[in-house]
């Protein structure tokens, strides 16, 4: 499969849906992003982190989700059982094991393409890999969550252990 021919909404090489391509506004990384297969029964509800320490995962832009995820998983207390980012890095689907928790801007793109990607519930909360938020890097006990709604991806902060 030649990925350069894929468009937003197409099935990607891992079996999910392409939701960001190199021409997506704000994608300075020049990469393709694929949402994991939403119909997969393996998806679970897990806290953002098991602890309140500073992970350093403050990237918000497209292309920072993977590095945020690595920072979160480097905290020794985080395991795939108690940390959403660690769960993502341990996840394998269709031969791909490079999954990560999206940054704020990546999650916003997921919301913008939610009808194309499918599998999202309006009114449900989805973790971003961004800790705190812009200008709020010292807010160690919280992480960013987006509520997928009909009119906007309403971002707010919530305790990491929720």
What does the model show?
With 162 residues, the chain is α+β, with helices and mostly antiparallel strands. Helices cover 18% and strands 18% of the residues. It contains four helices and five strands, in the order ββααααβββ. The protein has helices at 65-73, 84-90, 104-112, 114-117; strands at residues 17-20, 33-35, 124-131, 142-148, 153-159. It has a three-stranded antiparallel beta sheet. A two-stranded antiparallel ribbon has the order 1-2. A hairpin with a 4-residue loop joins strand 4 and strand 5 (153-159). Helix 1 (65-73) crosses helix 2 (84-90). It starts with 16 loop residues before the first strand and ends with a strand. 36% of the residues are buried.
Order of helices and strands: EEHHHHEEE
**CA-CA gap between termini:** 39 Å
* Number of DSSP helical runs: 4
Structural class: alpha+beta
Uncertain segments:
134-138
Secondary-structure topology with pairs:
Elements: E1 17-20, E2 33-35, H1 65-73, H2 84-90, H3 104-112, H4 114-117, E3 124-131, E4 142-148, E5 153-159
Antiparallel strand pairs: 1-2, 3-4, 4-5
Helix pairs in contact: 1-2
């Amino acid at each position: 499969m030649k990925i350069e021919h894929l468009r937003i909404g197409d099935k990607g090489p891992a079996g999910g849906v392409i939701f960001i391509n190199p021409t997506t506004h704000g994608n300075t990384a020049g990469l393709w992003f694929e949402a994991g297969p939403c119909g997969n029964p393996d998806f679970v509800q897990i806290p953002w982190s098991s602890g309140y320490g500073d992970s350093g995962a403050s990237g918000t832009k497209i292309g920072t989700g993977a590095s945020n995820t690595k920072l979160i998983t480097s905290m020794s207390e985080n395991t795939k059982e108690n940390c959403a980012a660690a769960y993502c890095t341990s996840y394998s689907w269709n031969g791909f094991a490079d999954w990560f928790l999206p940054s704020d801007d990546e999650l916003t793109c997921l919301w913008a393409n939610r009808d194309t990607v499918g599998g999202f519930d309006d009114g449900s909360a989805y973790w971003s890999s961004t800790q705190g938020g812009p200008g709020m890097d010292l807010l160690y006990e919280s992480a960013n969550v987006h509520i997928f709604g009909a009119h906007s991806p309403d971002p707010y902060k919530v305790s990491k252990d929720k």
